[in-house]
Amino acid sequence: MTTPSDSSRDIPRPTAPRMLVVGVGGGGIGILNNALADWPDPPPVAAVNTDARSLEESPIPLRVALGRNVAKGLGSGGDAEIGRLAANEDLDALRALVANQDLLIMVAGLGGGTGTGVAPVLARIAREEGLMVLAYVTTPFTFEGTRRQEQAQEGLAALKQSADAVICMPNERLHALLPAGTPLREAFAFVDRMMTAGIRGLWTLLTRNNSLNLDFSDLQSLVENSGNECSFGYGEGSGPDKAEQALRSLLQGPMLEKGRILVNSGAMILSVIGGPDLSLSELEMIHRRFEEAARPGARIAMGAAVFDEWSDRLALTALVAEHWIPPALKADALVFPAEDASPKAERRPRRGRRDARQAELDLVSDRGRFQDVAPTIHEGADLDIPTYIRRGIRIPS
Ligand SMILES: Nc1nc2c(ncn2[C@@H]2O[C@H](COP(=O)(O)OP(=O)(O)OP(=O)(O)O)[C@@H](O)[C@H]2O)c(=O)[nH]1
Ligand SMILES: [Mg+2]
């Protein structure tokens, strides 16, 4: 996927969240290494590893080497406990890395020792520093063996406890999209492209001054009620029926399990990237098709970015909270303590930013099919109203 870079539109938004993308371990760094080669205008990126050579070889300039005593610069030897100890040896370095940010997007290939052991520790530290933490992770291909699979599942469980949301893409799910006999390197490169597309779709809408932005509060609302777990899907199209193509590959493809993940989902964020020819009717069609595919009344926050060089192309990314719980029900649920009562890292509240975001919101009276229901207000915004209506967005026709 080529990257949009229209300088006239690439003005950072004054209220955009401060965001850092961190690759953790060989898998996470590998995903970002490949992404950066194809991303002329990337967000701030850092690499964290116990393996000194992997850090040296990475084009990512900001690097943190962990566990000089426990790992001696040689990696964890596939042992997540060594990864965890290495992270604990350098907590200050991790804390300094994430300080003064709002959003951490962590990327890791689970199954090895570093990604699996370090990611939950980094997530906890970042939350303590007040960041929202999204962990984009892969789980190993089946051929990588049972031990890696089991270790990855343990890492996934630990991450759900420490991150705000884990967005897991099992490598095996993407395998279905590849022709038989695809070389390993190409299979990883494909996973890399899909992971990056998911991150890029979100990042573009949160940070760039495009036609139809997302509020950080849209993301907060999705994530805070997601049950700590989201899925993502990606589809692309070109030519006159580009929206239909992108929809088809996303709704019928394996990333969202042929739409199964959407059926029960209560909330999602859709990101559309297109060219100057991106039309309101295409956006409406995308919105409607997701409405039809999801649970009745599902919250759909949609954003769109327009880039001049994207004429005749459209890319669609969906971040889906399959186990989304409406905030009202969540409050009731507090009466009955959850079975798993292990404490989650507390996020230190930040001051200042919320007021700035509220000032952006437009008041809208048309609440569509939510007209007769009590509004769900989050940070002053009625989340039952689609973002693009709520914010009075102008869409190129
Ligand atoms: N998409 C993608 N996945 C990768 C890549 N390299 C590794 N992976 C996946 O990520 C998992 C963990 O990566 P590793 O590099 O083995 O592990 P690590 O996190 O560095 O941990 P140790 O090397 O054991 O310390 C692997 O089992 C693969 O499934 C890559 O370049 N791209
Ligand atoms: Mg490694």
How would you sum up this structure, described in words?
The chain is an alpha/beta fold and 397 residues long. The protein has two domains: 189 residues, Tubulin/FtsZ, GTPase domain (Rossmann fold, 3-Layer(aba) Sandwich), CATH 3.40.50.1440; 146 residues, 2-Layer Sandwich (60s Ribosomal Protein L30, Chain: A). It has 15 helices and twelve strands. The strands form two sheets. A ten-stranded mixed beta sheet has the order 3-2-1-4-5-6-7-10-8-9, sandwiched between helices. A two-stranded antiparallel sheet has the order 11-12. The chain is globular and about 60 Å long. The N terminus and C terminus are likely disordered. The structure holds guanosine-5'-triphosphate and magnesium ion. The site of magnesium ion has 7 residues, from α1.
Topology summary:
Blueprint (H helix, E strand, L loop, with lengths): L18 E6 H13 L7 E5 L2 H6 L4 E4 L14 H10 L1 H8 L4 E7 L3 H16 L3 E8 L6 H17 L2 E6 H5 L8 H24 L8 H9 L4 E10 L3 H11 L7 H4 L3 E8 L5 H14 L5 E8 L6 E9 L5 H7 L19 H6 L18 E2 L2 E2 L4 H4 L7
Parallel strand pairs: 1-2, 1-4, 2-3, 4-5, 5-6, 6-7, 8-9
Antiparallel strand pairs: 7-10, 8-10, 11-12
Helix pairs in contact: 1-5, 1-8, 3-5, 4-5, 5-6, 10-12
The chain binds guanosine-5'-triphosphate (GTP) and magnesium ion.
The site of guanosine-5'-triphosphate has 24 residues, from helix 1, helix 5 and helix 8.
